[in-house]
Amino acid sequence: MIKEMGCLIIVAASTIAGFMYSEKFKKRVKQLNEFERAINQLQDEIEYTHTHLPEAFNNIAEKSENPINKVFSKVSKLLYEGEAESVYDAFEKSIKDKKFELNLDEDDINVILDLSKTLGDSDIDGHKRMFSLVRNNLKKRISIAEISMSKNVKMYRYLGFTIGAMLVIVLI
């Protein structure tokens, strides 16, 4: 009886671990979509309402979901308090602080940092071109993340169960 319970616990724990690891792929797609939405809002804030950048980042933080809202909130705070030399510096510090909450890879982060290099340094037309470029790059990153998600979610779920079953077989 105890042996069967132990085997069941091993299989259940490894299956749960597989499900938890596969969630990272889903979160990445969700966070990239949230960044895309936030970038669209930022463009509207800059182009149509001519909101100052720290205030625009704060407005976006209020409308965004976790952990993206924390990134924009931190950027806004760094710019308001003058703790960052530029928008790029503020984004870099903010993303570094929230790196463990974000499920983004280096290329995803680089797309966001590329936008931050030009914010506040060019005119409206320059911002329009940069927003367009960033949106296109984000769409590419989202499609790559969706392909990765569709491949890996099932694999890690099955892998978790399989590893648990193998452990049970070895232990018996």
Q: Would you kindly provide a written description of the structure presented here, covering whatever features stand out?
A:
The chain is mainly α and 172 residues long. It has one domain (30-153): Receptor-associated Protein (Up-down Bundle). Helix content is 83%, strand content 0%. The mean pLDDT is 87. It comes from Clostridium rhizosphaerae. Pfam families: Spore_III_AB (PF09548). InterPro entries: Spore_III_AB.
What is this structure's SSE topology?
Blueprint: H1 2-47, H2 53-63, H3 68-80, H4 87-97, H5 106-118, H6 124-171
Helix pairs in contact: 1-2, 1-6, 2-3, 3-4, 4-5, 5-6
Pfam family, one: Spore_III_AB
Protein name: Stage III sporulation protein SpoAB
InterPro entries: Spore_III_AB
| Cα distance spanning the termini | 13 Å
Question: Could you tell me the mean pLDDT?
Answer: 87
CATH topology: Receptor-associated Protein
The count of DSSP E runs of length 2 or more, i.e. the number of strands, is 0
Structural class: mainly alpha
The whole-angstrom Rg is: 21 Å
Sketch the major β-sheet.
none
Number of domains: 1
Organism: Clostridium rhizosphaerae
InterPro entries: Spore_III_AB
Protein name: Stage III sporulation protein SpoAB
Comma- or semicolon-separated keywords:
6 helices; elongated; 172 residues; Spore_III_AB; mainly alpha; Receptor-associated Protein; Stage III sporulation protein SpoAB
Short description:
With 172 residues, the protein is an all-alpha fold.
